[in-house]
């Protein structure tokens, strides 16, 4: 790990030295020509597309996991669990192609509808509404990370001791109240870990995003318009024809992605550790 | 308010296996009734049919009648959830919710009945913990996790949680089998104190315990492996332990089998 980090830093430093812009705030990415580049737009694109994906995927994934673990009849649960595991193993390029070929043309209509009627919400505002937008990329990422989060959450929910569930039922809890009282609190750290794993995969996702987004540079909250990019997609798009300086710049952007992932993971660990004595580990 | 339970012709099944057969008995209000008998004779199963906890196991079902002061608990329009609010239960292993504090554990049942004023919840939590003889030990650490208490304290916490919703009946499934003798004594004392308010039914493997705390005792037995369990004899506890009318009961309590 340390050796990789050192190698990346050594590769990135020459490019950062010739950079004419400020690496952290510049939105232009042109290391090959004017040697002006900054991470701001890319990092923004990465974070917003991944966060939107997580917001969409997490509730559905938890719902699916609960259905499998606590509602579905045993045979249906087994079948669904198998399907979810299978979906979690589909390569991301498949999701990307599905996104470009099916989702982009299909979703333009709904996005126009959102823009027209909910355009007063800044997120849905903008003029050039298109299928190749940040929200479309987020939907693809959400579909991609949903099976992972669902599969891990299901395992966690199945670990809830029977005695805790019976304690809730014996108090007169309905099945849903039992889930809220015993299952969800017990599974909370596991679900957070699953979400972070999904978020990490979404942030690092390259091909699916590169196929969909038009690779523009800029910071905009208008998630329905034809713009957007991400760190990983930018590396995939630009690495082949990069000059040595361009390559260094891309490596520097990779380091930033690494740092963001690290921060997210640390934050998740802190959230889990804050309630450690209530985790049930002692029981 | 303590209520009377009347059971008639009750069979309980796990899938196609009949676990208990044709149990009929009357459980008197405001008293302690003990179920004794060898392992696997269906006494815990029978206990769980009384608050409809038996049917949460996949494939489990019940036939027969259970009346709580004249109300049929298995009538079509009765929700299992409402039965369990009237008939509380304490389990073999202490099972406080590990993600909740002591306070939240006791208040857990109240929360199911909708949000209550904080002061009212505070009152109920204090009254329940006092009722379970736990208040003095935990009053300074109500916000600490319930799982941090000792085994005996955890079991009394579970009793506090069960009585907080003011049930009519309290079912206890071997509540002391995971506890040391001192903690066991504390729970036995507590049961005797609680019987003025609740109808208490206890399953126990410890015959001295049944003799010490209960007013009436039912002896369960089964004819052989794979056969359903039945009630052999039910009577005043003093009679069961001194002068039972059935030979099997006498053999069991004198330690000749089981």
Write the layout of secondary structure elements.
The complex is a heterodimer of chains A (283) and B (258).
Chain A: H1 2-18, E1 29-30, E2 36-37, H2 40-71, H3 74-88, H4 92-118, H5 134-158, H6 162-170, H7 175-204, H8 207-212, H9 231-238, H10 244-274
Antiparallel strand pairs in A: 1-2
Helix pairs in contact in A: 1-10, 2-3, 2-5, 2-7, 3-5, 4-5, 5-7, 6-7, 7-10, 9-10
Chain B: E1 5-14, E2 17-27, E3 32-36, H1 43-50, E4 60-68, E5 71-72, H2 80-86, E6 87-90, H3 102-112, H4 118-131, H5 135-138, H6 151-164, E7 169-173, H7 181-194, E8 199-203, H8 207-213, E9 216-222, E10 229-236, H9 237-242, H10 247-253
Parallel strand pairs in B: 3-8, 3-9, 6-7, 7-8
Antiparallel strand pairs in B: 1-2, 1-4, 4-5, 9-10
Helix pairs in contact in B: 3-4, 3-6, 4-6, 6-7
Number of strands of chain A: 2
**CATH architecture annotation name of chain A:** Orthogonal Bundle
Measured as a percent range, the helix fraction of chain A is over 70%
Radius of gyration of chain A from CA coordinates: 22 Å
Strand content of chain A: under 5%
Largest sheet of chain A, described in full? 2 strands, antiparallel
Number of strands of chain B: 10
Quaternary status of these chains? heterodimer
> Low-confidence segments of chain B, ≥5 residues, pLDDT <50?
none
Instruction: Give the SSE order of chain A as H and E letters.
Output: HEEHHHHHHHHH
Class inferred from helices and paired strands of chain B: alpha/beta
Number of helices of chain A: 10
């Amino acid at each position: 790990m340390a050796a990789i980090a050192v190698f990346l830093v050594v590769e990135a430093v020459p490019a950062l030295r010739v950079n004419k812009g400020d690496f952290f705030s510049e939105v232009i990415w042109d290391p090959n020509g004017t040697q002006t580049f900054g991470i701001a737009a890319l990092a923004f694109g990465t974070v917003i597309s991944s966060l939107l994906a997580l917001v969409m995927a997490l509730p559905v994934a938890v719902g699916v996991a609960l259905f499998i673990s606590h509602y579905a009849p045993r045979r249906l649960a087994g079948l669904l669990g198998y399907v979810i595991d299978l979906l979690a193993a589909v390569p991301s390029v498949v999701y990307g192609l599905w996104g470009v070929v099916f989702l982009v043309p299909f979703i333009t209509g709904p996005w126009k509808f959102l823009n027209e009627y909910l355009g007063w919400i800044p997120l849905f505002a903008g003029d050039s509404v298109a299928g190749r937008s940040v929200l479309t990329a987020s939907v693809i990422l959400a579909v991609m990370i949903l099976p992972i989060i669902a599969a891990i959450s299901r395992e966690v929910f199945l670990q809830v001791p029977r005695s805790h569930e019976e304690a809730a039922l014996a108090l007169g809890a309905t099945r849903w109240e039992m889930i809220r009282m015993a299952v969800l609190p017990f599974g909370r750290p596991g679900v957070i870990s699953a979400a972070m794993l999904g978020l990490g995969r979404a942030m690092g996702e390259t091909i699916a995003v590169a196929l969909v987004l038009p690779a523009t540079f800029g910071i905009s909250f208008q998630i329905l318009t034809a713009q957007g990019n991400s760190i990983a997609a930018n590396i995939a798009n630009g690495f082949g024809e990069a000059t040595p300086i361009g390559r260094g710049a891309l490596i520097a952007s990779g380091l930033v992605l690494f740092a963001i992932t690290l921060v997210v993971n640390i934050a998740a660990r802190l959230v889990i550790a804050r309630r450690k004595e209530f985790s049930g580990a002692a029981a | 308010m303590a209520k009377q339970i009347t059971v008639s012709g009750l069979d309980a099944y796990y899938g196609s296996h009949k676990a208990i057969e044709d149990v009929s008995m009357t459980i008197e209000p405001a008293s302690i009734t003990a179920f004794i008998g060898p392992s696997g004779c269906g006494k815990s199963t029978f206990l769980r049919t009384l608050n409809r906890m038996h049917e949460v196991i996949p494939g489990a079902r019940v036939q027969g009648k259970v009346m709580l002061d004249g109300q049929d608990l298995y009538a079509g329009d009765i929700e299992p959830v409402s039965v369990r609010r009237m008939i509380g239960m304490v389990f073999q292993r202490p099972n406080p919710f590990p993600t909740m504090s002591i306070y939240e554990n006791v208040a857990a049942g109240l929360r199911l009945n909708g949000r209550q004023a904080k002061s009212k919840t505070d009152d109920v939590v204090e009254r329940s913990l006092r009722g379970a003889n736990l208040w003095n030990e935990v009053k300074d650490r109500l916000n600490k996790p319930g799982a941090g208490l000792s085994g005996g304290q955890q079991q009394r916490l579970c009793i506090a949680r069960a009585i907080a919703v003011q049930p009519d009946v309290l079912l206890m499934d071997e509540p002391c089998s995971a506890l040391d003798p001192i903690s066991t004594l504390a729970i036995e004392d507590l049961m005797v104190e609680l019987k003025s308010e609740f109808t208490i039914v206890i399953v126990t493997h410890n015959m001295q315990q049944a003799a010490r705390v209960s007013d009436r005792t039912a002896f369960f037995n089964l004819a052989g492996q794979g056969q359903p369990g039945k009630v052999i004899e039910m009577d005043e506890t003093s009679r069961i332990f001194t002068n039972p009318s059935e030979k099997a009961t006498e053999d069991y309590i004198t330690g000749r089998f089981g």
